[in-house]
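Support reply, case 0932

Customer input (verbatim):
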Amino acid sequence: MGDTPVLMIDDLKTYFFTDRGVVKAVDGLSLEVGRGESLGIVGESGSGKSVTFLSVLKLNQYPSRIVSGRILFEGKDLLQKSEAEMVDLRGTKISMIFQDPLTALNPVLRIGDQISETIIFHQKRAFFRNASISRRVSNWMNPWAQKSLEKRARDRALEMLELVKIPSAVQRLEEYPHQFSGGMRQRVVIAIALSCDPSLLIADEPTTALDVTIQAQILELLAEIRQKLKMSLVLITHDFGVVKEVCDRIAVMYAGRIIELSRVSDLLGNPRHPYTRALMECIPDASKKKVRPIPGFVPSLIDLPGGCSFHPRCQYAMERCRMEMPSLKQVEERTLVRCHLYD
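Our regenerated output:
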């Protein structure tokens, strides 16, 4: 991992402005992703995992809005970029794999065409952005130039299917999404995301709809591709087992904030925050007599409890926890925890 982070999020706040009130989906989050690093983001549904990284790509939709903060990608603030600049960035420098591979693919287009169109779109934008006016006109009017671009994109699509280990790749280019299994569709989605050589890949629950065997294959593939392409990976999940297989560090989120951040081995071996411990106790294990669910409910992000958001569910809660939000503090060399127990 390099010294300079590829992504730095600083005090990000993304809120949803609804008729019922303001939903503080991401509330003062700060985070770094190193070059070549794999970072896992873990937490219950509604903790702000996906919203954080939709904010990175500025894909927030009404009624959500980034209220404040900075998002630095390769040293440049994405929140200062125009929509045209973000279109150039998405898919080329930063790619995202969304949760459901079936809905991410167009059912009436061949797989080869779906991979190629991403490549052609970005290559055309790069050409028209950088070429002189006379060269733009010449290439736009030249059918041979168009065919050459389509041929290169087709060759790249084939290369990507082979990279994600889809057998009979030449034949599969001509097939449709319904002719692929769930695992193979997820491989296609990964191929599309990697087709323009991004520096950062964000994978949002990439194995949720897959059975255990296929899930293991996809995780192994992601880890192998990350090493081969030397890219950074953010893996959003609710499963500690998934993070253990792929990631270098884990950030645990609760109610829009990071409450623990550590190396994978350190966190899984010695979880510090009561919420992290409670999450791990929910994991089924043959050695456990029974799974212990976390008491209570995830708080409403419109009306969060005072002090620490987790205190109504925490067995270690003190009076201070009800009154004062703890800061994210360093408790060991590589571990940060947001909890008054470590003051």
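We compared this against your earlier run and they match. Two observations from our side: The chain has two domains: 5-93+199-342, 104-191. Residues 143-163 form the longest helix (21 residues). Please reopen the case if you see a mismatch on your end.
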